[in-house]
Amino acid sequence: MTASIKLYTNHGCPYLLGAHRAHIALAELKLPFQEEIIDLSVPRTAEYLAVNPRGLVPSLSYNGNVITESAIVVQFLADAYPSHLLPSGGTPERALARARISFFVDTFFSKAHPHYHKAIFAKSGDEAEEAAAEFVKQLEKEVEPLLGDAAPYFAGSETLTLAEVLTGSFILRVLALPKNGVGPENLIKDLPAKTPNFYKWATAVVEHPSVNNIWDEQKVVARTKARVAKLNT
Ligand SMILES: N[C@@H](CCC(=O)N[C@@H](CS)C(=O)NCC(=O)O)C(=O)O
């Protein structure tokens, strides 16, 4: 029996990535789903708060079971539908491949992401430049060595993996926002020279249709600019 899947989402999340991750996973797994767009510019309705009391997107309703938090939604889908995204566990080799993906995602979000965030929302030009330099330094030191065998995707995969599902929406924003005047250009200017593995991988990631099919660059840029302005007033 085909599962009944409903995704509560918003396509134009500003800087944050949550809902976009679920779209990438559903596209890769070719799962039909119903979509409900949640207006994030107004307080959440009582109906939506009954689905997700935190009021955030994404939420996934799977045969009536609600799953929230984007990483958990994506992990649920990858577990429920074994695929090219993630080897099932059960052997040490497959467990190692899973551990490698988890380590990459953890490294990206714990070591590099906080500096990018700081650069985008900095209160002064100096603070932004300092954070941008630290972002590039951490990418070079921590992330670059993990992408030496990307071809073009993680660990030599010819198809997207869970590593790209979890990071792809962020990679789109990393490459696009500074080009459009959000955050210092130094966030991305030196990436081809200093982090060639990362840059090659990131370029392949953002070109993948499952990653960019709901991407509206100008809308995300405008919303992120508005959010930065609001936080800095
Ligand atoms: N940790 C959550 C974060 C989700 C999140 O922040 N979603 C944003 C949109 S991408 C949201 O719902 N924002 C609405 C708000 O903050 O009121 C996840 O990964 O699912």
UniProtKB/TrEMBL annotation:
<dbReference type="InterPro" id="IPR036282">
    <property type="entry name" value="Glutathione-S-Trfase_C_sf"/>
</dbReference>
<dbReference type="InterPro" id="IPR004045">
    <property type="entry name" value="Glutathione_S-Trfase_N"/>
</dbReference>
<dbReference type="Pfam" id="PF13409">
    <property type="entry name" value="GST_N_2"/>
</dbReference>
<dbReference type="InterPro" id="IPR036249">
    <property type="entry name" value="Thioredoxin-like_sf"/>
</dbReference>
<feature type="domain" description="GST C-terminal">
    <location>
        <begin position="94"/>
        <end position="228"/>
    </location>
</feature>
<dbReference type="InterPro" id="IPR050983">
    <property type="entry name" value="GST_Omega/HSP26"/>
</dbReference>
<comment type="similarity">
    <text>Belongs to the GST superfamily.</text>
</comment>
<feature type="domain" description="GST N-terminal">
    <location>
        <begin position="6"/>
        <end position="85"/>
    </location>
</feature>
<dbReference type="InterPro" id="IPR040079">
    <property type="entry name" value="Glutathione_S-Trfase"/>
</dbReference>
<protein>
    <submittedName>
        <fullName>Glutathione S-transferase</fullName>
    </submittedName>
</protein>
<dbReference type="InterPro" id="IPR010987">
    <property type="entry name" value="Glutathione-S-Trfase_C-like"/>
</dbReference>
